[in-house]
Design the sequence.
């Protein structure tokens, strides 16, 4: 019999979700697996690496959140981005979009009780605009029909993490799939300024550019007791599971035409730690 989870998911709307942890004792930690840009249906998705990270999440009783581009979904009829080389054999059917969702549901069933939130990315919103098919909603509905908990989120959403119902302590995260590009020089680090000018949060999670890094910041503020305090903010860029650099027998294709090199793989475990009365957020690479 599987152990009972130490957390629950409350789905308020596609824009707001709450992860409530049941925290006991003076010292503990909780992990949340944060992923983006899985591109699950793409032949270049490293499913072996993905499975290893998902199994770690189950082992650690960590909820899993995906910040967009769960699917690649570029091989549908009339999609100018399509390439015959980027279709897995099982998806070479007349109902291409249905097939990628159905296969994903079956593959992810072992994680149906830990995959908590899946947000829209630019790949899914493109399909929604062109074909009027909501891939993420269909994926989440299929997993819930199979007894899972997975909820769909929008392109941008808020996640509140509560640690004990009696403490009133919460951490707010802003999840946004991402925008624009990310050059080798900037790695899209300048995008955090735009996020922080629009939204107040303790943690910002984004993907899209296929870079991967954590940018920690500290700000000063005046609290309700008129004391100056300092607060840590974490800006987290999540990597990808699609390796487009070496695609078999040659260094060719879109990445090389655009002068792009290899991109970092995988996401981060967001670890929330309490020791005595001190709380800390840290982000640990998956391996």
Sequence:
């Amino acid at each position: 019999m599987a152990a009972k989870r130490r957390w629950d998911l409350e789905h308020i709307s596609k824009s707001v979700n709450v992860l409530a942890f049941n925290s006991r004792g003076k010292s503990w930690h909780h992990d949340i697996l944060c992923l983006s840009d899985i591109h699950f249906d793409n032949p270049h998705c490293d499913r072996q690496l993905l499975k290893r990270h998902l199994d770690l999440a189950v082992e650690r009783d960590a909820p899993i959140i995906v910040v967009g581009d769960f699917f690649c979904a570029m091989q549908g009829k009339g999609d100018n981005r399509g390439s015959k080389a980027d279709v897995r054999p099982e998806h070479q059917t007349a109902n291409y979009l249905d097939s990628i969702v159905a296969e994903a549901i079956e593959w992810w069933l072992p994680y149906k009780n830990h995959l908590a939130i899946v947000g829209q990315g630019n790949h899914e919103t493109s399909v929604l605009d062109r074909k009027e098919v909501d891939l993420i909603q269909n994926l989440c509905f299929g997993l819930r029909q199979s007894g899972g908990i997975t909820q769909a989120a929008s392109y941008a959403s808020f996640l509140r993490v509560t640690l004990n119902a009696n403490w009133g302590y919460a951490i707010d995260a802003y999840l946004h799939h991402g925008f624009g590009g990310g050059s080798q020089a900037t790695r899209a680090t300048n995008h955090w300024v735009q996020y922080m000018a629009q939204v107040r949060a303790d943690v910002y999670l984004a993907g899209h550019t296929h870079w991967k890094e954590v940018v920690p910041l500290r700000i000063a503020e005046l609290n309700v007791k008129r004391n100056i305090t300092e607060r840590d903010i974490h800006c987290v860029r999540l990597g990808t599971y699609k390796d487009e650099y070496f695609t078999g027998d040659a260094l060719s294709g879109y990445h090389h035409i655009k002068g792009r090199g290899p991109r970092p793989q995988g996401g981060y475990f967001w670890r929330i730690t309490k020791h005595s009365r001190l709380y800390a957020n840290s982000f640990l690479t998956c391996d």
Notes: The chain has six helices and 13 strands.
